[in-house]
Write a structure and sequence with these properties.
The protein is mainly alpha-helical. The protein has a domain at 1-37. It is built from five helices and no strands.
């Protein structure tokens, strides 16, 4: 964080002016930081292409990614925690 990203003077100016949109700082950062989601509708679809097809392709790509694995020590600690919790819940029916 620095003076440019914090932009207190810009906040002050935007409040005084009633809008941040025309300020050069806003325009510059918007152009640098704008995120456009990959599944958003940004215009006309090509023939035969619809949002459901785009979602299907996106999900196929996501499900083909390898799952992140925990380190052995973290897995061991997680297993230990879950075992203790399982033991402490034995006989609990959820009904009081």
């Amino acid at each position: 964080i620095d003076e440019d990203t914090l932009a207190l003077s810009v906040v002050d100016e935007g409040v005084r002016e009633g809008s941040f949109l025309p300020l050069s700082h806003t325009v510059r950062w918007l152009r640098e930081e704008l995120w456009v989601p990959s599944l958003s509708f940004r215009g006309a679809f090509r023939a035969g292409e619809g949002i459901l097809e785009r979602v299907r392709v996106f999900l196929e790509e996501v499900f083909c990614l390898p799952l992140p694995l925990l380190e052995e020590e973290k897995l061991r600690r997680l297993d230990s925690f879950l075992s203790r919790e399982d033991e402490s819940c034995q006989g609990y029916s959820g009904v009081k």
